[in-house]
Amino acid sequence: MSTTRGAPAGAAPVSRVVLAYSGGLDTSIILHWLQETYGCTVVTFTADIGQGDELEPARAKALAMGVAPADIFIEDLREEFARDFVFPMFRANALYEGEYLLGTSIARPLIAKRLVEIATETGADAISHGATGKGNDQVRFELGAYALKPDIRVIAPWREWDLGSRESLMAYAATHGIPIERKRGTESPFSMDANMLHISYEGGPLEDPWYEPPAEMWLWSVSPQLAPNEPTYVDLTFAAGDIVAVDGRPMTPGQVLATLNSLGAANGVGRIDIVENRYVGMKSRGAYETPGGTIMLRAHRAIESITLDREMAHLKDELMPRYAELIYNGYWWSPERRMLQTAIDYSQASVNGEVRVRLYKGNVDIAGRRSDESLFDYRTVTFEEDEGAYDQADATGFIALHALRLRNLALKQAQRPSG
Q1: Average confidence score pLDDT of the chain
Q2: Nearest of 388, 366, 253 to residue 303 by alpha carbon
């Protein structure tokens, strides 16, 4: 039985390819497979988007596999990720299927962007990634790449080779002398992906939707049951829809996200367990930890509640599912997502002020909100004497006009013969 199918028949030769490289099992094998199958030079790109791993070992592994030092790119993209991707998404209050905060989805357009930029910088013919043929990531990487560089060639090994299991990957590594680190202790049965917005868990026992994730699976956050018995209060300052300070301390987007991750995780905030509909057509069960993002969403909706006009707020809520779906499906770089972003960003001009949140045993509650641009008018809503700010008699005509069609319909229906 062959281990690879080789390059597709009739495919144009490739002299240089940029690989999204982590240094782990899959991408180490892909690196060698590209060299062997296409006879090409491989440029490796490793992005630090806050996954928490030490990335320098990836350099040593790439060097050991024959990659030239000048062809190894290891970049700290944490601040760009938070500023240009996470924060714009949170201005929209984006949730996919009402629950998922899009932690993996929003990281892929940034990686796709740098892949094609490095391909241009190094004169590469193609890019390559380690996403499987069953998942959403292959779509996200490739739609992003084609949107930014229409003539780029994409090599997706999982759709070309015959290495269909972990055992076959290990056998390939052994045959070709690819060093694979063995982790000490028991290896996690879950497939995990992390960045500074979230960590996800899929596969293994989670493939049974009836299976309850074990307590030891969660890596970031304390269990809500074991969280502190006293609440933690946090003051968040907003400017144009973005959090710019935490407890009065000015912060960059990356610093904000890191700080809220720490506070949320310590209070058991941000765990979810869902079954979602993948773009490629199947249902997938996943568990996620998004402590900082959960706080950001709750607080952003709170500041919008007093600063956004009613119809603008309602229109945003109507657009949000479509916006979230575009990100989930890989259309960050599409014209329709950009169009929606322009409308969303326009709405945020008045979204300024402060929100106080209370974190307690997995919950994020709003303890207060205030803004110099607040549309909340005490004089009109008070149950006390309103000093003429609102004439309650005006409601009579308002109700009569809105009831007109309902009354006419009811009268017509009453006049129809029964039976």
Answers
A1: 93
A2: 366
Instruction: Output the pTM of the full model.
Output: 0.92
Instruction: Specify the pairing of strand 41-48 against strand 232-239.
Output: unpaired
Three-state DSSP state, 367? strand
Confidence band, pLDDT 50/70/90 cuts, at residue 64: very high
Mean pLDDT of 403-408: 94
CB 74 within 8 Å of CB 56: yes
Domains along the chain with CATH numbers: 16-80+105-175 (3.40.50.620), 191-370 (3.90.1260.10)
CA 105 to chain centre: 4
Specify whether the CB–CB gap between 271 and 263 falls below 8 A: no
State the first-to-last Cα distance of the chain, in angstroms, to the nearest integer. Answer: 74
Closest residue by Cα to residue 206 from 275, 138, 270, 265? 275
Distance CA(81)–CA(76), nearest Å, equals 10
Q: Known catalytic residues?
A: 26, 108, 137, 191
